[in-house]
């Protein structure tokens, strides 16, 4: 299976694919991503010099909290958002308590004007005279509830049908997925996979 990788704005460093790549897909407003996944990616990178490790900041919800601006603020000032802020406050931290130095790139997002045009075009298809106004309105409401949020999602996240964050993808230079998983695995499990 091939990875559909749609890279957007580089936030920190640059991503150059190599023979072996490990990508962590995360959201800024994901406590598990910030408390476990990003530190684990750093440890894996330190232990595997020939492995290209990077993080992809995405959004599939809370679009006002998971974006390029909040990703930059997280990396540069340690600024936290809603759920991540609550989690770290419970352990006495007001900022991200570590520096993350690996490359971070944004997922690619459909420009707002394109998303609006796409939504409008699809909705207009249902403005046929043979449909009653009630049916047309019901279709428009359904499409606007389903389509507009999808148009705001990160394309790598959406196109690969990822379950959530953190998502890990181990792949080669030809974008062949060697292994992919959602959530957390123990460091020993990941290292055994990389040592194969």
Number of helices: 7
Total E-strand runs? 6
Strand order of the biggest β-sheet: 1-4-3-2-5-6
Helical percent range?
A: 40-55%
Unreliable stretches, pLDDT < 50, 5 or more residues?
Answer: none
- The assigned structural class equals alpha/beta
Series of H and E elements: EEHEHHEHHHEEH
For the terminal residues, how far apart are their CA atoms? 19 Å
What percentage of amino acids are in beta strands? 15-25%
The residue-averaged pLDDT reads 90
Major sheet attributes: 6 strands, mixed
Estimated radius of gyration:
19 Å
Shape: globular
List keywords for this structure.
six-stranded mixed β-sheet, 6 strands, 7 helices, globular, 43% helix, 196 residues, alpha/beta
Structure, explained:
The chain has helices spanning 31-47, 68-77, 82-90, 112-125, 133-152, 155-159, 187-195; strands at residues 7-12, 20-26, 52-57, 104-107, 167-172, 177-182. With 196 residues, it is α/β, with parallel strands linked by helices. Strands 1-4-3-2-5-6 form a 6-stranded mixed β-sheet. Helix 1 (31-47) crosses helix 3. The mean pLDDT is 90.
